Fold this protein.
Amino acid sequence: MPRRPSGDTAIGQRIRDRRELLQWSVRHAADRAGVAPSTWSRIEHGHISADNRFTLASIAEALRCPVTDLTGLPQCPIDREKAETGGAVYETVRATIEADLDYPPIAPPAPYAALSRELDLVCDLRARCQYTAAAHRLPALIRGLHSAAYGADRERALRGLILAAYTASFVIRYTGHPGSACLIADRTRQAAEMLEHPVMSGLAAFSRAHAAAGMALYPRTLQIAERAVCELRRHAREPEAPELLGQLLMTQAYALYGIGRTDDALEPVAEARAIAERTGESPALRLMFGPTNINFWRISMEADGEDPSRAVDIARRTRPHLVESTSRQVAFYLDTGRALVRLGQDAEALRMLLTAERLAPQRMRAPLVTETVRGLLERARRGGTGWTELRGLCERIGVGS
């Protein structure tokens, strides 16, 4: 009988449990996923870390379940900090559901100047990976913007609501609730439809595409991004439009990688790079678009691609500090670290992971990160390097030793 997964169950074991519940052979399941049976078997037994986003998406589709069934959702709160975070996440989701623009608010509109300052603060907290602090402030902000959308500052409030929901979607995703992130991202579409502004409609699409990618729904991500690119090209001279168009093009390329159409991704990457040469490193819409961010996207794609050495080559030519966003810098170190693990360069990979932990400890509890660390731990037991530092990292992020 398959074992019931515990809070620290390896992803490979969850895959095995799900396959055995379906009473499928390894060969049958692997054929459905387009994965070699030997690779599937090695993933189940922990000989290969199950931290490749694209492979996990194929396995989940083959097993007819969401990726989160394999990676695991956050555990029930075991300390005050986790309980506080969980409560803030719940209140943010609830506030977003209640901020339905088809219905008038209960509270009177608040002064928009105060809401604008609060929005800037919350966006800054998200960029610095202070997710719990952002989640605590988001419910009141979202409710306030909902009320303001029915007042004299309607247009500014609708723009603010798009930015707030976009930020909330990221926060909720990175606190371990990708399904709720999709729900929140959809609120941006409603506000954008009421505002009727092409750039903000594009930002709403970017938010929804990013949330869909977080659920490994790459075909859906591609649909959203492609339509948004076509619509925004007609308004490419609007302020902030070039940077957003570049981000949407990279989202399109990432989704193409996710469904195995890597050659088709070359064209949107080239177009985005041409835009970045004109914009430089830009803070527009807090997207931090520019040549460095394009490298971040490419590293993320190649880290899970057929040749992770490409990711490492790009990383060695990238200066992450040029992007003033802790969130994006952390993604750089985590993705480069995963690529290095795939290449067997464990000591350098561990340095990358420790740098990411120093910048954003909360991001280290993401399932793919803990799976990477678990793989490093297994190799270290067999004579790898960095045992002391690795054991400390495992203890801090809850990977069983």
Observations:
- Residues 13 and 44 are 6 Å apart (CA to CA).
- The mean pLDDT is 92.
- The radius of gyration is 21 Å.
- Residues 154-174 form the longest helix (21 residues).
